[in-house]
Design goal:
Number of helices: 12
Shape: elongated
Largest sheet: 7 strands, parallel
CATH superfamily of the largest domain: Methylesterase CheB, C-terminal domain
CATH architecture of the largest domain: 3-Layer(aba) Sandwich
Number of domains: 2
Structural class: alpha/beta
Number of strands: 14
Strand content: 15-25%
Distance between the termini: 51 Å
CATH topology of the largest domain: Rossmann fold
Length: about 350
């Protein structure tokens, strides 16, 4: 049976283009469109869609407010359609926090051609969203309040490197882990599938919420205690060793597994450069990026783990890692931070 899609956007052109793109895929049926959240509310009751696309900024009620109401009253899979602006990035990050499964971005110019080029991504993400494990939030997270750490949480270590890979649902999963890291936690590298315009905002939001310092990797930074680096969108992130020290390495080589940044690239470098001093974690996400790289880490003596199915929005990447025998442990999201600190103390 075809997946029923409702398109919510104030632009008639965007509604038309999205309808044409989605309708070409036999897996989908566009059951309706809506110009604003009020019309969308009625269409949801009438048409019972399986998934909706939701514009971030609309008149009468913005997309974020509508999403928060929807996830509280009638949780359902939502794919956000976001502009590539600083405000668009902030609102999109908030939408993912509020329960949206994923997002696609509107191009800067050439709207018709740009949306056509997004057809494969759009349909892939709609397909994933329709079967995602929804974890709606009833209340927005308080950004000014950091997680209170246990009194014995702090420790000293100098040689551990934690590498985290994530995709769909990963922004919230990564935040959940980093918020529980003490100020002197081991250095952390994060590859999250995210556009170039969004990665700096993602890192900045994490930095505001965490006890450790979080920044977008520029290349050349030494990996120090209490510091985490997020892969820059459209750039691969690697671990590089020089003597007894580790550094970030950033590059724009070809995409790997259709991704740049690629989780595989980060994990493969950790296996080669850090070996038993590295810890690899693969989190929620569609596809299989990182599964082979995590196996390379395990074979090199690294501790490895995958997020379990129950706590993952999409158990694609971690599921593939488990099938490859790459993950020594499979853990719920809420247990991963504590386990990382336990392993780092050894």
């Amino acid at each position: 049976m075809a997946i029923k899609v409702l398109i919510v956007d104030d632009s008639a052109l965007v509604r038309k283009l999205l309808t044409e793109i989605i309708a070409r895929d036999p897996d989908f049926s566009v059951v309706g469109t809506a110009r604003d959240p009020y019309e969308a509310r009625d269409k949801i009751k009438e048409l019972a869609p399986d998934v909706i696309t939701l514009d971030v900024e609309m008149p009468r009620m913005d997309g974020l407010t509508f999403l928060q109401n929807l996830m509280r009253l009638r949780p359902m899979p939502v794919l956000m359609v976001s502009s590539l602006t600083e405000r668009g990035a902030d609102v999109t990050m908030a939408a993912l926090e509020a329960g949206a499964v994923d997002f696609v971005t509107k191009p800067h110019a050439g709207l018709s051609d740009g949306l056509e080029s997004l057809a494969a991504e759009l349909c892939d993400k709609l397909r994933t969203a329709a079967c995602a494990n929804l974890r709606p939030r009833t209340e927005p997270r308080e950004r000014s309040a950091k997680v209170v750490l246990a009194k014995d949480a702090t420790f000293k270590t100098t040689d551990r490197v934690i590498c985290i890979g994530a995709s769909t649902g990963g922004t919230e999963a990564v935040a959940s882990i980093l918020q529980r890291m003490p100020p002197d936690a081991p250095a952390i590298l994060i590859t999250q599938h995210i556009p170039e315009t969004f990665s700096a905002r993602f890192a900045a939001r994490l930095n505001d919420e965490c006890h450790i310092h979080v920044a977008e990797a520029q290349g050349g930074e030494q990996l120090l205690l209490g510091h985490a680096f997020v892969a820059k969108g459209n750039h691969h992130l690697r671990v590089r060793r020089s003597g007894a020290k580790y550094f970030c390495e950033v590059g724009q080589e070809d995409p790997v597994n259709r991704h740049r940044p690629s989780v595989h690239v980060l994990f493969e470098s950790a296996a080669r450069e850090a070996g038993h001093n590295a810890i690899g974690v693969i989190l929620t996400g569609m596809g299989d990026d990182g599964a082979v790289g995590l196996k390379l880490m395990r074979d090199a003596g690294s501790a490895t783990m995958a997020q379990d199915k129950a706590s993952s929005v999409v158990w694609g990447m971690p599921g593939e890692a488990v099938r490859h025998g790459a993950a020594v442990e499979v853990l719920p999201l809420d247990s991963i931070a504590a386990r990382l600190l336990e392993l780092a103390r050894r």
